[in-house]
Amino acid sequence: MSRTPPIPELPEVELVLRRSGRARRFSLRVSRVDGRVALTIPRGASEREALAFARSQTEWLRKTLGAIPPAQAVRFGQGIPFEGQMLTLEPARLRSPKIDGARLLVPEDPARLGVRVETFFKHAARLRLHAASTRYASEIGRDFAKITIRDTRSRWGSCSSTGALSYSWRLIMAPPEVLDYVAAHEVAHLEEMNHSPAFWRVVEALRPSFKTERAWLKREGSALHAIRFRD
Question: Global pTM?
Answer without folding.
Answer: 0.80
